[in-house]
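Quick one, T. Sequence first:
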Amino acid sequence: MKPIIRAFFDEPTNTVSYLAADPKTKRAAIIDPVLDYDHRSGKAATKSADAILEAAAAEGFTVDWVLETHAHADHLSGAPYIKLKTGAKVGIGEHIREVQRIFRPVFNATDLKGDGSEFDHLFKDGERFPLGELEVEVLYVPGHTPADVAYKVADAVFVGDTLFMPDYGTARADFPGGSARSLYRSIKKLFELPPETRLFMCHDYKAPGRDHYAWETTVAEERAKNPQVKDGVTEVEFVAMREARDATLAAPLLLMPSIQVNIRAGKLPPAEANGVRYLKIPVRLVA
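Structure tokens:
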């Protein structure tokens, strides 16, 4: 039995969120939801999350989980809002603790314990849990960050930022704790799945020559067509390519606000004495 999957594309952040459900019991999970955030004004809204919730309600789904593939650096998570509206639990890979420990001093986030307790559940590699009568398997796929996981539901795998479409390539691996070598090995782990396994991306940016967004492919297509990591590309070649390419990339526009929020399971930093919550931007003078 295959899950029902609905995709929701947020063009401002090029993010794909998913609603995945068991067709028999109608128990559902929402994967990588987006909070609409205007960086210029500091205003946030829930239009994207509401669209997913409306779709779930229209199909009679009960949302049991919000599943994060990692602490995103390009969008703020809508997880707390969905939890508020549905009572769903928020889960992420257990290595989020490492990401919290890396960024806690960067933002002087003294409210963070560093043990992942801001989330309702921390998944271990290989852990399995029910989604109605379907089973979700957690796959640890570090590299983009040290804490990435993918979620496998029957023949579908939600890969987060580990892979992009076959005509675009792979994720960057230069964030703190990231590793091009680990990323290569994580991708090869995914490539060991059956060729017909469907892979669902978390982002798409329209590869050169493609005039539409796309986010679903297969293991077979990635292995045959992805120029950065297709069959025959060695680990040494991949690491050299990835590290050289990453050295030319600018930081994501929403890196600073996203990390602060997402390592807190999507919650904003605590309010200060005046009752206002602030997102910090560390400033460094460079020669």
